[in-house]
Amino acid sequence: MPAHCRLSAALIVALALCCAAEDDVQQAMVDRFVRELGAESFDLRELAQKKLIALGGGALPHLEKHGKSTDPEVLQRLKKVRDGIAVDAARRVDHEFAAHGFYAMLGQKQKPKNPTRLKPVPTPESLQALTPEEWLERGPRGFKWLAAAQEEDGRWDSVKHGAEQNADIEQTALALLALLAEGHTEKVGLKENVKKAVAWLKSQQRDDGAFVVKGKVVDGIAHALAACAMAEAAGMGRIPDTMQSAQRAVNYSCEHQCGEGSQRGGFGRSPQSLCPDTVTTTFFVLQLKSAKVAGLSVPAAAFEGVLRFLDSVEDNDKHLFKGTPSGEISITASIMGCLARQFTGGSREEVAPCVDAVLAEFKGHLNDDRPDALLAYVGMIVMFQQGGDIWTAWLSKLKPARLERMQKEGANAGSWDPCGERQGIGRVATTALISMSKIDYPRRQPEP
Question: Which tens digits make up the pLDDT trace of 229-243?
Answer without folding.
Answer: 999 999 999 999 999
